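Quick start: what a row looks like.
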Amino acid sequence: LVTMAFFVVSVSMFAQKTVEPFEFQFEGKTLRGLIEKPQEQPSSAVVVIVPGSGRTNFVEGRWFSSVRDQLVSFGLTVVCWDKMGCGQSEGEFNILQPVQNSAEEALAGIQAIIDQQVPGSEKIGCWGISRAGWIVPLINE
């Protein structure tokens, strides 16, 4: 089992991917992030990384890079963005942003993924930790 886990991690470290900018509008502001997709195979689905609590820095800080790389190695496109006022996203960061508003933000991002025909957008799932555990169920309502 340990050998198998090591093999999976090793494969993901060498996965070839293409990284493109991603942006969408929410509440009159431009939120910016990344689209990471497999370079050598078609994407079978999109995984949206829903931001948890606190400030974000997906674009410049490579947050959750090992998770993102692993998902791409499985043939999935990964989309993430920085919250308002974080990274290169416009607006002001609000630590007290209601979870319902965060779900609306994620839905705006998902709609942009569909509108931009991001590879794999026929099937979209969400991944997140921390506060995202409160947000994701609201997205699926």
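That is the whole record. The helical segments are 2-13, 58-61, 65-73, 99-115, 132-139. The radius of gyration is 15 Å.
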